[in-house]
Amino acid sequence: MKTSNFDPVAQDVFAKQLKIAVIFVLVIFGILILRLWFLQIVSGSTYRAKSENNRIRLQSMAPFRGVIRDRSGKILVDNRPSYDLYVIPEEIHDVDDLLNRLTVLGNLGMAPIKETISRVASGYPFKPVCLKKDISREELAMLETRRFDLPGVMIKVRPQRHYFYGDLAAHVLGYLGEISETQLRSGKFPNNKSGDLIGKTGIERRWQELLNGGRGGEQVEVDATGRRIKVISQRPPVSGADVCLTLNRELQTLAEKALDGKHGAVVAMDPRNGQILALASSPSYDPNLFITGFDAGTWKNMVSSSDYPLHNRALTGQYPPGSVFKIVVALAGLQEGVITPQEALYCNGEYSLGRGRYRCWKRWGHGTVDLNRALVESCDIYFYHLGMRLGVDKIARYAHQLGLGRKTGLNLGHEEGGLIPTAEWKRKRWGVPWQGGETVSTAIGQSFVLVTPLQVATFVSAVFNGGHVYRPQVTRWVRKTGGENIFEFTPQLIRDVEIKPEYLELVKKALSGAVNHPRGTGSKAKLEDITVAGKTGTAQVVNLKKEKDAEAKGEIPWKYRDHAWFVAVAPADAPRITVAVLIEHGGHGGSAAAPIAKTLIEAYLRFPVD
Amino acid sequence: MLDRRLIQNFDWVLLLLLLFLAGISILNLYSATYAIRDVGGSRIVMKQIYWFLIGFSVLLVMITFNYYYLERLAYPAYFFTVALLIIVLLVGKVMSGSQRWLSLGPLVFQPSELAKISMVLVLAKFFNDRDSIEEYRLRDLWQPFILILVPCGLILKEPDLGTALFLGMVSFSMILIVKVNRKSLLIFLGCCLLAAPVIWFGMKDYQHRRIMTFLRPDTEPLGAGYHINQSKIAIGSGQFWGKGYLEGTQTRLHFLPEQHTDFAFSVLAEEWGLVGVTALLLLYLFLILWGLNIAKGSKDRFGAILAVGIVAIVFWQVVINVGMVTGLLPVVGIPLLLFSYGGSSLISTMAAMGLLMNISMRRFMFQ
Known about the structure:
The complex is a heterodimer. Chain A is an alpha+beta fold. In chain A, 38% of the residues lie in helices and 21% in strands. By secondary structure, chain B is mainly alpha-helical. The chains are: A alpha+beta, B mainly alpha.
């Protein structure tokens, strides 16, 4: 062993080295403290915010969507609980075993689910993974009884939109669909987030904002695994407002039953204020399917078949009005003074203009007809003359006044305006002048004239209520959950028509005759104790004179058959209901459409008054 | 052996420093395990208290003999350590991908901990034996290089890159303190630079990833970069005064990983802010400067170099750990001595502190 006390020289060298070491140590510690200064002071608030971000999750709480009722308060649309099956990855012992046990619930798509579970488990093991949405009651019962064999399984209850009567009033109620990116970015949906369902059409869309309610939220403290530790603050969601419609559920059901298997539309309206009592379009669809999902076949049928079940034919179907239009022409003739109620014209079954020959539907003619008989028996020849005396532009003026050729403004989604031709319109649209022959066919609601069933109901209501054209409406009130009404129905007068009341009376009387007179075309709508007034219409789809002559109707392919119209008002002296019926390719209005109107009127007027 | 003069020279300052650090460590450990106190957290605190008690006993044992006798034990201890490092590679316990632990009945310990002290001892002995050289040149240093490379290589093989590098740093510090010829030093550093690519290709995948993560922590926020990001958030969010004791959300909600071991410093930083961490760093600084003062006061070369080696252990552990948790250095898994939870490291540290005190107490005695 070396006894080596430091010799003084070596100790000096060592001391110098130690001094360097001390300086080195001080510099390094200085750097460390500077680094801490940078992290804690310079970037301190940034890191503080990041740590808060780590800790606090904002969990939004979806509000309860408002309920939709019919006019007497019966629920048409509400929310039912949907039981969704979740698993918490952290609490699963054996994934394969668990999924095996769950196979009783049918095909869950095991491979992707297993992958999802393992992916979530590695990041946020306490975050539930959804295995199946909306399991059935039987499945729920089965799960509940086996709860102890299924660790990690959890059932979450979520309100799901439920259309109580399936396809009833589907076109009025509308349906829900996922909010689009564009809508989200538009800023018009402050209470919605990605994945939310919003009203895409109908009432669901009309009152989307109020039905939706206000989104609530809570601030939750979570740990690194995503487990909820505690709720820091909470703002409960505000339930959506309830919407009460003017629809009468029983009448609506009848209307849809009457249309069953047919293509067409029915509009029933209160002529005194424009309230829609029933609005049906056939074929229809079940809005529930938009929530629960379609199978591929159903969806394909919905969007691509020529049945167009999603189209609301009452608002978007544009048809020639046929003889229903004679009401307009008659009123125009009287008001313009080109004819008097007494003047009689002779119908021999044919009308010539230039080289054109125009026939009456009654081949051998009606003989001498005045205005009343012309409407009762729907004589075409009378109206050819009347139309020629008026000219197309005057006819158009009255048609417009009565609300035809314009959108009614019933706010239920897409609506078509129809078409009332004028000479100027034709020149602009086609670049050729109006032809006299076109006035002839316009006078009986053919040529270019197109109307929607809703317009027909609106204009006939105006004829019977003294000339007030009301905007059709379908909402009775919208009420906040507290009880305060946000919206209440008030009639909206579009305009009063400039037609003398006595002329309106004359036409009303004639339309009464059309139903009640032995030779009236609408006699199939006749009721024993209630005076019904109405007008038939048979709108040509294609010019089929020859086939008509041959009376070979049964052999005409369905899609070339005439559309059948009937519009009725009752009781004729104190009107409470207007019904417009259109059956696509139904043939004669008097036989195909009138009985439907009769059924609705009879039922409605026998309901207790609400 | 413990005569009156020894007791008179007892280094109360060093003991007080160690007690202070132990106290803060336990206090911080309690907070770090507070959220899991019902599921083993309290046991961790109790265990660490026992380890400290054992550690202080070891310290007392280490001052009973004259450190000078250790010079004779330096080489046997060194070879014993190398043997253990080989054994651990053959029969050691594998934990999280590396073979570092050796079990002796109920006791589990890391031979690499022992390697720190043996390394310091053997280098002190070597330079004491060659005290005639004023400036060491490379040709004088080939033996210490081999002495360093063997255990470092074995530890690297476990693999434990952090400890291997740490051991290299400590040894290198000791060589520098005995004064190396400037030219030799430059040649050596040049060789290191050339060797860097070789080392890079010899490293394991996870080690590559750690270094890449250190360079770009944001690229993998949920992967390997998660630890360092969460640690920086914990430290930074403490700001000046801290969030308060037991109030650290990063800690309590487990966003901070390894919070009672490698990242214990971040817990302190979150809850006590810049004030707290500066105080802790000043304690370590004081300990280091006090150790260097002991080295300076040592009456013999062996004691002086040994003291410097022990101070280097303290210094590099603090720098590597604090550098790591603040994102200045890669995450290499070096705990903060006297502060992080862990028995093996604590016992070896306390043994080293005992040696330091031994040197301190005997500086006025002459052989």
